[in-house]
Amino acid sequence: MNEKPLIVENIEKSFGSVQALRGVSLELERGQIYGLIGPDGAGKTTLMRIIVTLLNQDSGKILFQGKDAQKQTAFVRKNIGYMPQRFSLYPDLTVEENLHFFSDLFGVATQVQAQRIERLYQFSRLEPFKDRRAEALSGGMKQKLALSCMLMHEPSVMVMDEPTYGVDPVSRAELWDILKELAGQGKSILVSTAYMDEALLCDRIALIFKGQLLASGTPQELRRTITHALYLIKTQKAHYVFQELRRHFPETDCHLFGEGVHLLDRQNTGLSKIRQMLEQNKLPFESVQQIEPGIEDVFLDLIHRREVEP
Amino acid sequence: MTRTFMSIVKKEFLHIVRDYQTLIIIFIMPVIMLILFGYAITLEMRQIEIAVVDRSRIPQSRMLINHLQSSDFFNIQAYDIPEQQFESYLQQRKVRCIMVIPADFARSLKQERFTPIQLLIDASDPNAANFIQSYLQKIIALFNTENNPQFKFPFEIIPRFMFNPDLKSDYFFVPGLIAVIILLISALLTSIAIAREKERGTFEQILVSPVRASQIILGKVIPYIVLGFLDSTIILVIGHYWFQVPVEGSVLLLLLTLILYLLTGLSFGLFVSTITDSQRTAMLIALLMTILPTILLSGFIFPVPSMPFLFQYVSKIIPATHFLKIIRGILLKGNSLLELKVQIGYLIGLAAFMIVLSIKKFKTSLE
Amino acid sequence: MSNNNTVEVKELTKKFGGFTAVDRVTFQVKKGEIFGFLGANGAGKTTTIRMLCGLLLPTAGWASVGGFDVFTQQEQIKQHIGYMSQRFSLYEDLTVRENIEFYGGIYGLSRKEIKQKSEELLDYLNLSDRSDTLTAELPLGLKQRMALSTALLHEPEIIFLDEPTSGVDPESRRQFWLLIYELAAQGKTVFVTTHFMDEAEYCQRISIMQNGRIIELDAPQKLKEKYQASSMQEVFLKSIGEKPK
Q: Which residues contact A253 (CB under 8 A, 6 or more apart)?
């Protein structure tokens, strides 16, 4: 198999007058975790549904292991694992019954099922709960069960729509461990999330907003798109400092964060001058330091650039 | 606090108006049901297929056959079929009954002695078989009086059908339909309206405001009282002007009891909404618990006294049973308040019970 | 109440049958403070908030909200708090103006007040020319700010936000937090529950809940120092006894 697991070429899709996707392209490599990062309504779910052949695109092409996905839907569905946003497990079936059902659905032989379930229990740690009904599981366990159900037919490509949504931080960390492990085994994973901090866990990410990819690349590459120095002004009164700073710097260069204000120094003011300015205006702050931009900084920057150049 | 209440009412009306699909159903449904019941489903039978075997072939027998032919009830499909084919005719549903006039018909008529005419009726539908028998007897009785005016039975029953002299089933259905549709709107729509808010999460938002449970309930309920009223009026107007259902009694009394009946339905709807969080379950429960018993056990179609004992008791706790008596009484018999006091008493009791139960349950369900 | 705590909670407990959802929780919140609740699903955040909003009666303990007792003065509490949930609780089939008027109405504002408030609000949300569009058609970020604004129509002193920013884009989230800061600056007390660990940093103090109990309660900065962590995610994992990677 030399073909790439998944190539998405210039996909467009409209629902009535709403343009959900305006030309989206991406390529997924073998053993890669590809993160699709963006807020609700950006088009993540639509794109994933088109990839797994649940929806048809208006234009553009999807190559799944070298084959046209739109023409070979049966092949795609057999070899892809899809985990929808609110995964529909059967709440009245037990953990094990759910696993059996989904493997029957994909025609997995009964002898093989037992082996695979055994293996999946090992990494999901769901074995103690195998007779519990799915509805009685916690949010994190539900997601792990959903993931396990999807893995029963051993798909080589997995498409997961916000698997960590609404899951507590501990379970989220666990789920990402599992994804890493799967990628290590050579599986290719396309995963969407609204949590910016999860971007750093992906091998490659695309930032999607209003149906368009704002940028794509490795997390490092994207962070390097911010070429100006970024400063963190630590303060207890972030709100006040932010409002004041916006009088001295362009509004799009200041961003409010929990621990203080991020200032993108597009005008090359320099650290000492910034500090001077803060002191002159008697703004309360603890420290000013240059920091590495995070994915959230990149996203905010790209949104603003997009607004400047239509 | 009236402002609070008014804004709930207003909002509820907006929901109804915005959801025009449901609105259309609400107003079209009674019309469709009226047409269905008025035309398609009647308890009367017309044009019953009959075969006639005349073995006497005399003017009198031909006259009897003429009577049959000219009546709207029967449609003669075959004449003089051989006896060995009787069964196959009935079996293949070519006819529903066969009348055999014996060869000695003329003689026995002359001698004025008892003349047997054989009648074979397909009784696989016993109700229909009864109808056929009584229709035929009517025709034969008519024939007898015309032919033998001097002949006298020792006594004779001369029925006079009161309140519905033509035995029109429209008279029967139109009031019943009002009972069903009001229940549909009050119980079904109210339960869905609250379940919908629970599903969408807006219910929580209302609960954290200082609105009282009674205000929420009343505010939700009033728009549906109005809808129920409008629908009932539509049915009454169509029933009266199209199907000529009479309105003998007081319209005011009718409207007052209508409110009472609406209240039982609405409070049942509220009750349903407290035991479920999903619109679909609410709909199923409301349908199962209201519409079915109303159609089957209230006397809407099947008369209560012919039910097994147990069901006769069950029918007593179905509000529609009493409302049907009231509305038929007012429309067809011109009953007054006094004559309906028992039924109205029942209805008040049931309404009070449902209201107390639903408000109690509604309050505790917030916990 | 002589001190300036708007919310005081002492040994508050809620049991559902044999299950203790909230277990002897004690804390105070000052006027004008932004107070965060962190915790996994089922840790007891929502139950605590529901008791403070007067939606649930506590099993034991004591709590007062805005000077009113949660056991006996639920009506008064409801009049003095604003509440906004994750699902934004707007009626999608109603227009922007109708939503505002409805929520103004259920808090018993006069017609004049409602009219005046709606204009202010529409102006503030930049929605004056779109006041007759259905709420369903608004973008998510705007819906969220609108939900918050409608929860503030009756000028409550204490505001409860249950997972308010899930799923909105980073820019809208910032605008939302700006609004929260403004409210706090006006002296309003803000309660927030959130799944976004980085968002916890916007709060002045946060409490981490686990199995119905508060296991940590302090300023984000202090907690990070205590656990020698660089992010709140790390603080959270360490405090509930999991090793972060």
A: A263, A264, A265, A266
pLDDT, tens digit (0-9, with 9 covering 90-100), for A150-208: 888 889 999 999 888 777 777 888 889 889 999 999 999 999 988 888 888 999 999 99
**Gap from C92 CA to chain B (nearest CA, Å):** 10
Residue from the list A41, A169, A242 with its beta carbon closest to the beta carbon of C197: A169
* Inside any domain, residue A298: no
Given 3-state DSSP classes, what are the helix, strand and coil percentages for chain A, each rounded to the nearest 5? Answer: 40, 25, 35
Asked if A173 and A234 sit in the same domain, the reply is no
| Sign of the alpha-carbon torsion through B328, B331, B333, B334 | positive
Q: Which B residues, 285 through 314, put their C-beta within 8 Å of a C-beta on chain C? A: none
Pick from A233, A248, A244, A231: which is nearest to A286 by CA? A233
For B80, the domain range is 48-147
How large is the ipTM?
Answer: 0.78
Say yes or no for a CB contact (<8 Å) between B15 and C94: yes
B10 touches chain C (CB under 8 A): yes
Judged on CB neighbours under 10 Å (0-12, 13-18, 19+), C8 is middle
Give backbone dihedrals phi and psi of A164, rounded to 5 degrees, phi first.
-100, 10
CA distance C27 to C45: 13
Cβ of C168 under 8 Å from any chain A Cβ? yes
Q: What is the mean pLDDT of each run of 10 residues along chain C (245 residues)?
A: 79 91 94 89 85 90 94 90 84 92 89 90 84 87 86 91 80 86 91 83 90 91 90 86 54
Number of structural domains chain B divides into = 2
> Nearest CA of chain B to the CA of C157: how many Å?
14
In C, minimum Cα distance to A257 occurs at: C202
CATH number at residue C13: 3.40.50.300
Same domain, A17 and A165: yes
CATH number at residue A159: 3.40.50.300
Annotate B103-138 with DSSP letters as a single string. TTHHHHHHTT-----EEEE--SSHHHHHHHHHHHHH
Asked whether residue C119 is domain-assigned, the answer is no
Domain encompassing residue A144: 6-220
> How far apart are the C-alpha atoms of A277 and B12, rounded to whole Å?
56
Q: For residues A158 and A175, what is the distance between their CA atoms, to the nearest angstrom? A: 14
Q: Do A199 and A234 fall within a single domain? A: no
CA distance A114 to chain C (A): 31
Dihedral Cα B42, B43, B46, B50, nearest 10 deg? 140
CA A155 to chain CA centroid, nearest Å: 20
Tokens of A173: 């960390």
Judging contacts by C-beta atoms under 8 Å, the chain B residues touching residue C78 are 208-210
Are A182 and A249 in a shared domain? no
Q: Does B3 touch chain C (CB under 8 A)?
A: yes
User: How confident is the model over B297-314, as pLDDT tens digits?
Assistant: 888 777 778 788 888 888
Chain C residues close to A256, C-beta within 8 Å: 174, 177-178
> Is C193 within the bounds of a domain?
yes
Q: Please indicate, yes or no, whether residues B125 and B189 belong to a single structural domain of this protein.
A: no
C53: containing domain? 5-91+156-239
| Contact predicate A207/A225, CB 8 Å | no
For residues A96, A101, A104, A105, the Cα torsion angle rounded to the nearest 10 degrees is: -140
Q: How many domains does chain C have?
A: 1
Best mutation target among C68, C106, C118, C146 (most B Cβ atoms within 10 Å) is C106
218-237 of C, contacting A, C-beta below 8 A: 220-221, 231-233, 236-237
**CA–CA separation, A22 and A210 (whole Å):** 8
Q: Please indicate, yes or no, whether residues B138 and B58 belong to a single structural domain of this protein.
A: yes
